[in-house]
Amino acid sequence: MELLKVEAIKKQFKEIKAVDGISFHVQEGEVLGLLGPNGAGKSTTISMISTLLRPDAGDIYYRGKSIVKSPKGIKNELGFIPQEIALYPTLSGMENLQFWGKAYGLRGKELKERIQKVSQIIGIDKRLKDKVEKYSGGMKRRLNIGVALLHQPKIVIMDEPTVGIDPQSRKHILETVKALNKQGMTVIYTSHYMEEVEYLCSRICIMDYGKIIAEGTKEQLTDMIDEKKQVTIKVDQQSQEVIDALNSNQEVDKVEHKEDQIILTVKKHNEALKNIIDCFTHTPSNILSIDIKEPNLEAVFLHLTGRALRD
């Protein structure tokens, strides 16, 4: 079921076209990734979905109704996690959750139960009495997420939620997103970290200079390019028979060999690996291990723009 539909929205700041007529949709229960470098327009896009900014043109529909005309249609069902930490540093974690919970209209027993539940989800239940100013960057990020979950939103928007944090907190946040999605929560996740988007997102929109330049699953996006697989084969010994057989194999574009490794550039083809393994038949070389490096979203972005994602 289509939960959110974005139609040709635009937003311009003076001479800068931050968002330039983009359209996409979000299915209920999916994790949609907005992937792109800093300045691509991701944060401006989700600020419009969150009703913090009004589009200069276009419209946004939540459950079939325009939230540009009537922002209240999404506010009660939306959890928004901004890129900047939105907490009161001199208050404790508990006091922050109580403040924001009351802002969502929670009171009494319901508020207490939601704080307990959320603090367990984000993994800081033992530090709730401490002031936020004493938290690490990762703990602040976790609490920031907890605030957005208090009112049990149907859709959560996360804007670069792992920027500048330690690996342990980053892993915890990613696993939290996975768990929330398994429970049925719809997520829009923005990042310039390709690995996070590949891990979390069922569908991806790649953004650059305010436009969506490609959209689809990871597999659909990588199939757009004529990128080759890299296959590294570790052998017990090198033999000229194997090298000659691999060089004459139509699936192999390039053969390199050094010490106990043979490194191949191989066409994306289902039968390619089987044909490569067959090259070792009746030769002195035995395969010890095979490592396959598939084309990734970085390669897609490079193909579409001529530059790396983080340039």
TrEMBL record:
Ranges for domain ABC transporter: 4-234
Keywords associated with the record: ATP-binding, Nucleotide-binding
Gene3D superfamilies the record matches: P-loop containing nucleotide triphosphate hydrolases (3.40.50.300)
A Pfam family of this chain: ABC_tran
PROSITE patterns: ABC_TRANSPORTER_1 (PS00211), ABC_TRANSPORTER_2 (PS50893)
Domain of life: Bacteria
Molecular-function annotations in GO: ATP binding; ATP hydrolysis activity
Designated name of the protein: ABC-2 type transport system ATP-binding protein
